[in-house]
Amino acid sequence: MNLVLQGLHPDRSAIEHIAMLAQAQRTVALTPQAWRCEGVADSSEVRAAVEAACLAAQLDGTFVAPGRTLNEFKLVTMDMDSTLITIECIDEIADMQGLKPQVAEITEAAMRGEIEFQESLTRRVALLKGLDAGALQRVYDERLKMSPGAERMLEAVKAAGLKTLLVSGGFTFFTDRMKTRLGLDYTHSNVLEIENGKLTGKVVGGIVDADEKQRTVERVCKDMGITPRQAIVMGDGANDLKMMKVSGLSVAFRAKPIVRAQADVALNFVGLDGILALFD
User: Could you read off the pLDDT tens digit of each residue along the chain, which spans 280 residues?
Assistant: First the structure.
């Protein structure tokens, strides 16, 4: 196995220490932020020691099979809120209503897997009843920011011929704009009901929960003539786990502990473009 180490401000001595813990045969600098330790030992003891050392040094460490290339995959699937973008849109919408703490608390519980997503979304959207729909545009204009490395990652995967899917428990108001802005191939999310320029506190149609996210990945893969094992799936919350599990490579991005523990790759410190260093 190889071990890829990445950090925003890596300390060379920490890299060398972790390479020693992993019993690496040699270490190659890939970029100023990334190193590949080749021929490392792969055991539960080594992985535990490397994980602890990486956390202490604020490095992301990923064990990968040598020789993997990005074009083995055909689709990149991303969650939106707190993955492709830095905010939880519904929390910011709620802030326009003076209800951000109440809504954010429910959001956090849902992302940790403590509340079923459908219930959490229904409760959160109900709190938005009566809000002027113009608040959605204000959130998009004033608060929505791309996650670090997102645009570089998208540029690279497109150049490698992969299609892109944004599937979100958020809202079409934002995913539609992301699709146009970033040139994404597919999007799927929830529709907020609006009447007379006001939010009604309801969602139109079915809710995009964990099961629907998984079905969406499988449906898009079928349409493309590929299997879900040819998809990379990125997410941060418990409602992303089902679609991550059917993928060929799951990436937890600055994610909740329950998600990090089950993902193939956990990026806690570097940006979304950190996946690029994992491939030859």
Answer: 999 999 999 999 999 999 999 999 999 999 999 999 999 999 999 999 999 999 999 999 999 999 999 999 999 999 999 999 999 999 999 998 899 999 999 989 988 889 999 999 999 999 999 999 999 999 999 999 999 999 999 999 999 999 999 999 999 999 999 999 999 999 999 999 999 999 999 999 999 999 999 999 999 999 999 999 999 999 999 999 999 999 999 999 999 999 999 999 999 999 999 999 999 8
Give the residue among 179, 163, 151, 144 at the shortest CA–CA distance from 217.
163
User: Which position among 79, 91, 240, 273 bears the catalytic label?
Assistant: 79
79 is catalytic: yes
For the entire predicted model, the pTM comes to 0.93
DSSP class per residue in 177-243: HHHHHHT-SEEEEEEEEEETTEEEEEEESS---HHHHHHHHHHHHHHHT--GGGEEEEE-SGGGHHH
* Architecture of the CATH domain 1-66: 2-Layer Sandwich (3.30)
Q: Which residue in the list 11, 60, 81, 141 is annotated as catalytic?
A: 81
Domain ranges of the chain: 1-66
